[in-house]
Structures are given as structure tokens and as C-alpha cells.
Amino acid sequence: PSTCELAGLPVPDHCEGTSLVPLMREPDRPWKSAAFSQYPRAGNVMGYSMRTDRYRFTRWQHRKTGEVVAVELYDHQEDPQENINLAAGSEHKDLVARLAKQLDAGWKAARPG
């Protein structure tokens, strides 16, 4: 979409994505609320990860059953090297729940408005 918009061409219906032109023209504008990725591990485990402006939240799930086998939460403001997993701490229970809900909503919910 970005290339089409920059060239003044219509975006084809089959073209996926969001134009980055508004961000190029106004770099300080609010954009996506999170970036998403996934990473496979041995033993039929898949990691679903989300990076917000401050946190990285990852949920490791069994691929076949969906059972959560581990959760990771890192505060990049306080711990940019990701040395301290905050997910198990009771003081972060509400944050873990909020980030899990955001992860479940997925990348489509994080798109710019």
C-alpha cells in the first residue's frame, strides 16, 4: 500500500497491509500499539510474543492442546536485557492479564486507527 500511495496509484484489492505513508509524513504520530511474533520450540511448543512500547510479553503454548506451559514478561524500561521475568510475581497479575488479553486480540487490534 505504501508504494502505491507514494506513486499515486490505487491500492489493489488483493494487496494486504497498511500504508506507512502517514507515518513517513508525520514520524511522531501514534502508530501501532504493539508488534507481534511467534517462535517454535521443540516439544510441540509455540511462543506467541507481543512487544509494546515498554513490555515484551510471551506465552508459550502446546501446539496441539493450547495448554500454556510458560509465560514471560519483561519491562524494557527497567530491564532492557530481559534478565528478570516478572510474569510470576503477584504484583504483576493485572498487567499479565491485560497483556494476555491484548495478545489474544492480535495484531489486527493493534493497527493504527
Automatic annotation (TrEMBL):
GO terms for molecular function: metal ion binding; sulfuric ester hydrolase activity. Keywords: Hydrolase, Metal-binding. It holds the Pfam family SGSH_C. InterPro entries: Alkaline_phosphatase_core_sf, SGSH_C. Residues 3-104 form the N-sulphoglucosamine sulphohydrolase C-terminal domain. One of its GO terms (cellular component) is cytoplasm. PANTHER family: IDURONATE 2-SULFATASE (PTHR45953). This is N-sulphoglucosamine sulphohydrolase C-terminal domain-containing protein.
